[in-house]
Amino acid sequence: MDGYRAIVGYKHRNYFNGDADQMLMFSISQKSLHTSMESEPDLVANKNVCWTTPQGWMLVVSPSPSSASTAWLWNPGTKNKIALPDLEEEHHIPTGSKCLLTHRDATHPECLVVLFAYKEPNMWYCKVGNDGDGGGGSSSWSLYTYDIGDYDVPSGEPPSKDVVSSVAAIQGEIFFISSAEDMCAINFCNSSQQPEFQYFDVSMVDFPQGMNSGCTWLVEHGDELYLACVMFVGFDADNIGAIHVFRMDFSTEAWCRVRDIGDAVFLLEYGGNMGAS
Description:
This protein folds into 3 domains: about 1-35, no CATH class; about 45-200; about 210-275, no CATH class. Helices cover about 0% and strands about 45% of the residues. The protein has one helix spanning about 40-45; strands spanning about 5-15, 20-25, 30-35, 50, 60, 70-75, 80-85, 100, 110-115, 120-125, 140-145, 150, 160, 165-170, 175, 180-185, 195-200, 215-220, 225-230, 240-250, 255-260, 265-270, 275. A 4-stranded antiparallel sheet has the order 4-5-6-7, with no helix packed on it. Strands 8-9-10-11 form a 4-stranded antiparallel sheet, with no helix packed on it. A hairpin with a 6-residue loop joins strand 5 (about 60) and strand 6. The radius of gyration is 19 Å and the shape is globular. It holds the Pfam family Beta-prop_KIB1-4. It comes from Sorghum bicolor. InterPro entries: KIB1-4_b-propeller (IPR005174).
């Protein structure tokens, strides 16, 4: 895979191997699927656990049953590797968590790697930068349990805590859609580096007439925030009526429809609310 610039890495449930998760990689430029990772010891050694990011890096954790687990970032396109602080035993990050970097450049001095659990309002993060002596990151991993309100269960059961869904990182801030009327920016600018949730008014885009449902993704491209919408006719997910893309105008805090994204390609994760360009 040397020389491949655009690579998609993802985990696939291999039903022919005891339902075990299998790491797959797809090269967009070569249009080829890679199922054998033996040539990538950083991924397959010691039953390592991996998370992909929209920024092209992968978070790799080498588990240890009795001590802290070694963690690092790995770029499958360049094979570059950045050491991270060890994950202490109390941190149990679900394998299905969403992972992203706060900056496009992993070597940015303020870059953090952040993971969001899918089912619980938990997030883990640590700084990527080195401590100056060639070792790992300068800060330890932190767990933060956030509260963005409750999710009302339609069946009438007690509400559960809402979780961050579609996310994208722009120049150090992580954005997500909070409701049909507002969005939220998560930043780590305070001295304690604890996340701060700052809400601002943004109306969700309207769907065309006759299209009552759909899927949305937040995508970072060129340090700008985009919203990709796949809209269904009625409530039929097999009948796509339109695909629209919007760019966030932060000066007016509004979504603006765009007709062309140039030579960019948006990669949208089905069922996972993660997008990349």
